[in-house]
Amino acid sequence: MEEYAYMQANPQQIIMDMFDGMPDSYNIIAYDGETPVGTIRVVIDGALRLPADQMYDFNQYRMQLIEQAQSQDLPLPLLANSGMFAIDARWRNRRDLFRALFKLSCDIGEVRGVTDIITTANIETLALYKRMGLKALGAQVRHEHISVSMVPMHCTMQQITQWAFGGPRAHSKLTELFSQCYEYLLVSAGTAIFNTEDENANEAYLISSGAISITMDTTTEQQDFDLATLTAGELFGESCLFDEQARTVNATAIVNTDLLVLKKKDFWHQVNQDQSYMKVVLQVMEQKLRDVGRRALIYAHASREERLAFFWSNWQKPHNLCCESRINVLSEWADMRFL
């Protein structure tokens, strides 16, 4: 804010208003290690209305939404407002950080049942909001106390979610479990998520976008044994939710990857409220055991033709359509054919 002179210098480096003390206000902060590099605030509609209502009269729009819902026998709309958005100058070219902040905002909105978004956009960033799917509700309004012209804007929760996740979002009990934990991890290609023998493991990961290679160390100095290539929607590291053992495999990002993080304590808190979450994680683990068993059988006893058929079926799977995944499949086939 100070960088663009929207607010006066603040020795305490704290910007707050009355909405920060409300129970339906969520502050999302992005960190690079221990350093905060980005933030956004989500406020759900309540007795004080929303921060955007202090900049523009949204009452007519609210009435339109209510009348539309009543005419279609739908639940009354619930509005939310995202604001206090800021990213450190050194990180503003990181589109994945920008999008991740809004992904977390969408997670909060979906869990709370938000139907519509309103905001007042700085005229200088109007094009950005339009690309996100928001539309202007009226002409720009000048606010002299901060020397900024604002445009009232709106969109549905579905529209902003589709922009944030790059398309319609697939819903499952697994994504629902992770969406309530509110932690994203953005990693670059080649970054190790965890390694064999890592102790005190207490986090499982769900891939939002990108690809992860799962490997196991061998007793020789040859290349690690490739176990799997995982892509969007797949879970890994989940065994730590049930035991106290060290990691037994390595997990490495193949490309720039977004991960949702589930901590053990949060998992068990969710399970104590809804035991169906336990079932969905156990189903993932059971399928992995089946896959590992089949792969071990192919490695140990299959003919070259059977091995080729096995890897051809992997090649054709939807989650292996990305270039990096197919390269891993080819690499594994090349290693196996000489065994």
UniProtKB/TrEMBL annotation:
One cellular component (GO) term of this entry: cytosol
SUPFAM superfamilies in alphabetical order: Acyl-CoA N-acyltransferases (Nat) (SSF55729), cAMP-binding domain-like (SSF51206)
InterPro entries: Acyl_CoA_acyltransferase, cNMP-bd_dom, cNMP-bd_dom_sf, Env_Response_Regulators, FeeM_cat, RmlC-like_jellyroll
Gene3D superfamilies tied to this protein: 3.40.630.30, Jelly Rolls
GO molecular function: DNA-binding transcription factor activity
Stretches of the chain forming a coiled coil according to its record: none
Signal sequence coordinates: none
Domain Cyclic nucleotide-binding stretches: 197-267
Domain of life: Bacteria
Pfam families reported for this sequence: cNMP_binding (PF00027), FeeM (PF21926)
PANTHER family hit by this protein: CRP FAMILY TRANSCRIPTIONAL REGULATORY PROTEIN (PTHR24567), HTH-TYPE TRANSCRIPTIONAL REGULATOR ARCR (PTHR24567:SF74)
Protein name: Cyclic nucleotide-binding domain-containing protein
Native organism: Pseudoalteromonas rubra
